[in-house]
Amino acid sequence: MSVKVFLSTVSDEFRSYRERVRHEITLYYAEVKIQDDFKALGGETLDMLDVYMESCDAVVHLVGNMTGACPGERGVRTLLKKYPDLSAELPPFGEALKNGDVPYTQWEAWLALYHNKLLLIAKADDSAAREASYAPTDASRAGQAAHLERLKAVERFPSGGAFKNEDQLCLLVFQCAIFPLLVKAYAEGKYQRPDLAKGLIEEMSRNLARETGLDSEGRKEQVGRAIETYEQRIADGQVRTNISPIVDEALDQATTSLAKPGGYEEARQALRKAAEEMRRDEEERRERYVLGVTALYHRARDTALAAFDGEGAADAVEALAKAIHGDNAAMVKQSMNAEAATLHDYGRDRGSNVHLVAEIALRRNSLVAASTADERGEANNNLGNALSTLGSRESGTARLEEAVAAYRAALEQRTRERVPLDWARTQNNLGTALARLGERESGTARLEEAVAAYRAALEELTRARIPLDWATTQASLGAALQTLGERESGTARLEEAIAAYRAALEEGTRERVPLDWARTQNDLGNALATLGARERGTGHLEEALAAYHAALEEGTRERVPLDWARTQMNLGTALGRLGARENGTARLEEAVAAYRAALEEGTRERVPLDWAATQMNLGNALATLGARESGTARFEEAVAAYRAALEEWTREATPHWHDMAQRNMARCLALSKQRRRP
Q1: Cα–Cα distance, 96 to 243 (Å, whole number)
Q2: Within a domain: residue 92?
């Protein structure tokens, strides 16, 4: 027999439990002894028990409410003479000996401890069934309770929870005692590994005990597999990795922990702790890397933007995304789109064209990388937005034409049937690009197309469904109708435009979208001013002034300098029209001041077409002032403003506005010449 086990029980309380456990253990070819085996031999029982304790592997000690018989005085005296240090080694037991007789079962537990044997203490639950001879007394209950307290004093406690039946007791015994011993014996016998890690044996045994579908041979097979793993991967594995001191130290600590009882969890924690430390180090290293490349590429981006190198800025943005996200195409795309959106907002609101050039480059790259219909639709729409925003500032129409093409390409992917809201938003964007082109042409075909696109968008972007998108499209529709109205003699289109703007303001309120509200107020002011110019009274012109002043409250020079400049220009136009109807010059002087303020932000470099329009309007105000004053100074200033406007308003780029500026300049030159005659 390779494993020897002693069952320490009070027969009158646990006989059936003892016999069941004994039967189960012997199925694994282990030797099991009980107290009765030695009593039958005659002689001093306590001495025979001691001899067996010294040679056995484990003692299973069942604790209930009965104490059983006590050894005779001679046996106790003989054993104490044999082990004079027994009380000193186990002081709680020494106290028990002083207090009176100690039962055999308690002696068995203390002798197991004295001989450094595995001691499994199994405590019975009060509900556990007992033998027919079960007859505890108050004294026996107190004695067993005191015994458990003394065991606790030497840090020996009942294993697991209190057992309630034979099955629970067997499972407890096998998990905590028998399987560890069998595994160790099997390893020593078949595999000649007496040094097999004790902590590993304990954990292996506990886990195998839970495998109820395995018989003894199956468990032996799994033990063999586990030992092979231990030999190949742990015992004979690499000790020094030269990866990191953290790794080597943890491997050493885990190996040491596995070699001692209860060391399995300690080994696991050592390895996990080291791995977590490595992970934290890697995260910190990664964080430093990300911070470093971000700082470098952001500086490269900003340097390129400062040099007006939009392509260079886009290259830096893309390089940063790939440096951080590597081959993760989805994250690279997300990063580039986020940066492109930031560039767009800054370029739109702060008047920086180079930011829009950089955005266009990024949007083109996204379009090339797009692989699905949704991605291509989104990429074309975003590219169109960037081209449209920049194209609206340039004298040429190439970018606007390209924006229209990009939107039409997007609509091939973003169909109304498949993605109705995306289709509608792209229709709205297409309308804006067409309207901008229409403003530069003498005909109205593009403007009519723009109106049709806006009306199509509103079929899906309803007020009930998406109120803010509905408001934005209403405002855009108003702008296209206003431009058409300016080219017609009647007022129907202008009145439609005003209605559209007022509708937009019902949802796009100052509280919800302050900047959009300000832009719509500006556009409403334009429509009112145009309508007021065709009327004898000044009511609509005064309303226009109120709308412009409201717009300037949110659209400040600091927040949106280009919007502020446009509103100043529009304010100047309304003031000029009012001034033309008044005898004095106060309104006209205010108009000139507003135009000059607008030119401080709306420069030729940033928004050449707006700059030209402002120069034209400034010339008109100066010409009106000149007509009311003596001398030619105002006329000369007006002519200079018209000449400046014509530098951008060429016949090829903007024939309608070019012709108007030429006529105004000619009229002003004629008046100036007439004044100079003697």
Answers
A1: 56
A2: yes
Which of these ranges, 17-26, 36-45, 350-359, 482-491, has the smallest mean pLDDT? 36-45
Whether the per-residue pLDDT at 196 is higher than 70: the answer is no
589, 581 Cβ separation under 8 angstroms: no
Sign of CA dihedral 262, 264, 265, 267: positive
Cα gap 433→401, rounded to integer Å: 8
What is the pTM (predicted TM-score) of this model?
Answer: 0.56
Residue 534 lies in a domain: no
Question: Can you tell me which residue has the tokens 């000690």?
Answer: 61
Number of structural domains (the chain) is 1
* 205, part of any domain: yes
What span, in angstroms and rounded, lies between the C-alpha atoms of 37 and 106? Answer: 17
**Phi/psi of residue 489, nearest 5 degrees:** -80, -30
Select from 125, 152, 133 the least CA-distant residue to 63. 125
Read off the amino acid at residue 9.
Answer: T
CB 445 within 8 A of CB 419: no
Q: Residue 442: pLDDT above 50?
A: yes
What average pLDDT score do residues 647-658 get?
A: 90
pLDDT at 1: 46
Query: Domain range for residue 132?
Result: 4-233
Does residue 391 contact residue 436 with C-beta atoms inside 8 Å? Answer: yes
Q: Is the pLDDT of residue 612 over 50?
A: yes
Q: How far apart are CA 189 and CA 182, in angstroms?
A: 10
